[in-house]
Amino acid sequence: MTRGKLITIEGVEGAGKTTNLPYIQQQLEAHKLRILHTREPGGTEVGEAIREILIAPALPAMHQDTELLLMFAARAEHLKKKIEPALSSGKWVLCDRFTDASYAYQGAGRGISLERIAQLEGWVQGALRPDYTLLFDVDAHTGLGRALSRGEADRFEQEDIDFFNRVRQQYLTMADNNPQRYRVIDASAGLAEVQQQLRHIIAGMFA
Ligand SMILES: Nc1ncnc2c1ncn2[C@@H]1O[C@H](COP(=O)(O)OP(=O)(O)OP(=O)(O)O)[C@@H](O)[C@H]1O
Ligand SMILES: [Mg+2]
Fold it and tell me: Side-chain half-sphere of 42: how many Cα atoms within 13 Å?
């Protein structure tokens, strides 16, 4: 059985990740692939319970290390229970946020050193890295405006604009540093144009 590939979807709040996930899945299925779609933090029963703790607006601010460790705790569960078995069975896994979100939010956003995050990445993931990362890039102001139009702000969405500017910048830096893995989408465009970019990118994976 050929091992499947891991595709992660990243970008700031409101960039359009979740909106476009079904479209990406459909484009991949057109290539006769079996797809598992999932999300972080979450993706498993335990992981979704951890997600509730992480995003609940009602909880007091937690220490940044606590937040980082909860992210990786949920990720460990996700990898062992869901992602690894799917990849081994030949499925392609489409994941709405993954470890690069920890570098962007807990690293650039909160100020935890990237080296520390890299230690946890090695510990929890071993050598596993995404095969492709689709970065939905949009300025923080536009993204946050879209996200807040969905309704009540979660714990992250209550951060100030500088936080999201740092998050976006970190994603762009990772894209620059990993050009073979990253595909950057101009997510400020309308949905039809975003999907045209996605079609082109996905076609390029099979060219
Ligand atoms: N290209 C677009 N143009 C205009 N509005 C968009 C576009 N893409 C998504 N939206 C809208 O913006 C809002 C946020 O989109 P979505 O939930 O997909 O963002 P997200 O990247 O998943 O955010 P989060 O990180 O908070 O989960 C939704 O109401 C969606 O309909
Ligand atoms: Mg989303």
Answer: 14
pLDDT in tens, 27-43: 999 999 999 999 999 99
18 lines ligand 1 (CB under 6 A): yes
Phi-psi region of 85 (alpha: psi -120 to 50; beta: other; left: phi over 0): alpha
* Beta strand spans in the chain (E): 6-10, 35-39, 92-96, 132-137, 182-186
d(CA 171, CA 136): 9
For ligand 2, the distance from its centroid to the CA atom of residue 1, given in whole angstroms, is 32
Q: Which atom of ligand 1 is nearest to the CA of 21?
A: 18
Among 68, 62, 139, 143, smallest CA distance to 99 is for 68
How high is the pLDDT of residue 57? 85
Residues 108-122 pLDDT 10s: 999 999 999 999 999
Structure tokens at 171: 């994603």
Domain 6-205 bears CATH identifier 3.40.50.300:
yes
